[in-house]
Specification:
Length: 391
């Protein structure tokens, strides 16, 4: 049986191929398949790829969610007031490096991003996606657990943890070799789309893919090159704390709002919900995700784990979370996490054993399993494999 190579390039868009000659050439030979993503960020998309399921089934949507308290009687957030006072004065006292170091206990560090409020993190729990043998779910099996159960050898290489030895032909020595890079995702957000800085990163990733895949005999390898989502240029940034204050709404005392760059999630008592929905409708280009919308996007609806109210900004609209960002000028010049119905959110699949032009990220795992004659284990996705294709 042919060996399998999975090359997972986070945030690779079909439109990027014009700056990636090797992958563009590969796409001309095998065809370019647009991949419909899921609602959320890489956290949800990666879990959907490795389980073949939507978030409502595998259970992972957004990284931060409200902790459960045994004796919680009502929503009261007065506890944030003294912390807010300190956190908002912090940038005037410390430099950016000191801020990052001081926030590491809250989950900040290299992942310093708009959308995380340090004064709220202590009341939230965090779910991480570890993409190796430890990547297991109670709800659904993953590619890794399935391969283990069927005694199929594999190895996973993350470029961000071993950049010097990751993408090399000598690493293609298992039945399935998996390579991952998040360079494009990170630098697209940092540089913005259509910039020279991003173009250099695209060319760098393309050259690494060429060094890994060039000269491989397609009769001996099944190759899947894929991504999890696209990217949208930032058009406008809203400082929600400022907008709330203008309307006399007090985040942290009247209600608890948490910002995920393109999402605002609010926990509040029922009598405030209509007021907050009206505020977003009038002031922020966004969509209120009611139960019908959450069902449409296959989002987990586990009581209020992810919020009593969830708002999703329109494509290109990013939420700034607090004064730390505005003072330090921390801004994402491009972002993902918008509605999957927006074409710019599509990922991509290039494969010498797939012929379709449109598919979903949840179809990747069932396609791999079909090759090894492993049945679909209750997954939402379906196989798009064409094992008789000739390059």
């Amino acid at each position: 049986m042919k060996k399998t190579i999975l090359l997972f390039i986070d945030a690779l868009k079909p439109e990027y191929l014009k700056d990636m000659p090797f992958l563009a050439s590969f796409g001309k030979k095998c065809g370019v398949c647009r991949l419909h993503t899921v609602l959320g960020y890489s956290h949800a998309a990666h879990a959907s790829i490795w389980t073949g399921c939507y978030p409502e089934k595998h259970g992972l949507f957004l990284s931060y969610y409200l902790k459960k308290f045994k004796h919680k009687k009502s929503y009261t957030f007065e506890w944030t007031k003294p912390v807010q006072t300190f956190s908002l004065s912090l940038p005037r006292l410390l430099g950016e490096y000191a801020i990052r170091k001081s926030m590491q206990p809250f989950g900040w560090g290299k992942g310093f991003r708009p959308g995380i409020q340090p004064q709220l993190l202590s009341k939230l729990a965090y779910e991480e996606v570890a993409e190796d043998k430890s990547f297991q779910f109670a709800r659904m099996p993953t590619l890794f657990s399935i391969l283990d159960d069927n005694h199929i050898s594999y190895k996973y290489f993350r470029e961000d943890t071993d950049s010097t030895r990751c993408w090399r032909k000598e690493n293609i020595n298992q039945e399935i070799s998996i390579f991952f890079t998040a360079l494009i995702d990170y630098y697209a957000q940092s540089y913005g789309l259509g910039t020279r800085g991003l173009q250099k990163i695209l060319q760098e990733v393309d050259q690494k893919a060429q060094s890994l895949l060039s000269d491989l005999d397609p009769n001996k390898y099944d190759i899947f090159i894929f991504s999890d989502h696209g990217m949208v240029q930032t058009k406008q940034v809203f400082d929600l704390n400022h907008e709330f204050k203008k309307k006399g709404l007090k985040n942290g005392s009247q209600f608890f709002a948490f910002y995920d760059s393109t999402f605002c999630r609010v926990w509040c008592q029922k009598h405030l919900q209509n007021k907050i929905i009206s505020f977003f409708k009038r002031n922020i280009p966004s969509t209120y995700l009611d139960r019908n919308m959450l069902r449409k996007f296959h989002v987990p609806r586990d009581n209020n784990k992810y919020g009593d109210l969830i708002f999703l900004t329109h494509p290109g609209i990013v939420l700034a979370s607090n004064k730390i960002q505005s003072i330090l000028k921390v801004r994402m010049k491009a972002m993902h996490g918008f509605t999957p119905d927006y074409k710019e959110m599509d990922g991509i699949l290039l494969s010498n054993c797939v012929t379709t032009s449109h598919a979903k990220i949840i179809d990747i795992l069932p396609s791999i399993l079909q090759k090894y004659n492993i049945k679909n284990l209750g997954m939402d996705g379906k196989s798009i494999l064409n094992l008789h294709r000739k390059m």
